[in-house]
Specification:
The protein is an alpha/beta fold. It is built from eleven helices and ten strands. The strands form two sheets. It has an eight-stranded mixed β-sheet with strand order 5-4-6-3-7-8-9-10, sandwiched between helices. The chain has a two-stranded antiparallel ribbon with strand order 1-2. α9 links the parallel β7 and β8. The protein binds guanosine-5'-diphosphate. The site of guanosine-5'-diphosphate (GDP) has 19 residues, from α5 and α6. The site of guanosine-5'-diphosphate has 19 residues, from α5 and α6.
Amino acid sequence: KGAGQPKPGLLGRLLGRGGDAGVVRRALDDDMLEQLEELLIAADMGVDTALRVTANLAEGRMGKRLSTQEIKELLAQEIARIMEPVAKPMPLYRKTPQVVLVVGVNGSGKTTTIGKLASQFRAAGKSVVIAAGDTFRAAAVEQLQVWGERAGVPVLTAPEGSDPASLAFDAMGQAQAEGADLLMIDTAGRLQNRADLMEELAKIVRVIRKKDPDAPHNTLLVLDATTGQNALSQVETFRKLADVSGLVMTKLDGTAKGGVLVALADRFGLPIHAIGVGEQIDDLAPFDPEEFAAALTG
Ligand code: GDP
């Protein structure tokens, strides 16, 4: 579709400044490479990744006369090459219920993503149960119930302030009893007290393992792409709190900061299972590296 990919044209506009419509050829020199690096850094790709991309692009091409269009295509190729290995849908296992633990800071789009994923699984004929594990935020629980209704999926809740691990344990029991295909567990995103959050997540994992030693089968970290470089430190933090197995990048609709995905792929190599491209239930798309690279380079 292309809808919802990063706002096209960031690099394109900058590369094309001078209004040459992409056809004027320039020799690839150090000055040009430096300009390219600046563009990539401005797109939130981070210094290390920007340098690597331009170095790869320059290899064997110094002094060659290239049009801006050719440079854009080469850039897109280099970016797609970094992104291809991480573009993987969330694996589905035979064993049920498959437990999906969903982590991330508040506001990253956890609730919305759980709703969208539940809807996709339902559409694929899977039965899903959601556990509203952020028991400290009444609003989060209500939001999740709204999404559950939209997706046609039951949402298990517990009283405000109660132990999320005990909810997760009960939810696991119910999902097993019902023979559900998937159990998605929402979690709190309060990074203000990391020690508490770490203990909370560890306890959830501990209790669900009493019912299935392989659970959780997936631990999804939801990241807001508009936070730019901040997303990198969130990965670092959450990897210490939980055994993150994959990423969902939200809010890729209308951001020029999509370059952070390249930095994430380059630095961590974690699979990107899906991207959020809007606030509606169908606005979750598989990650397509080529489409992404083309949109980013414009
Ligand atoms: P949570 O606190 O992590 O559970 O975050 P929410 O799911 O409540 O999302 C926070 C805000 O981001 C809400 O206003 C959502 O509508 C919005 N949101 C979530 N995903 C996307 C997305 O992919 N695109 C856009 N534009 N907004 C999103």
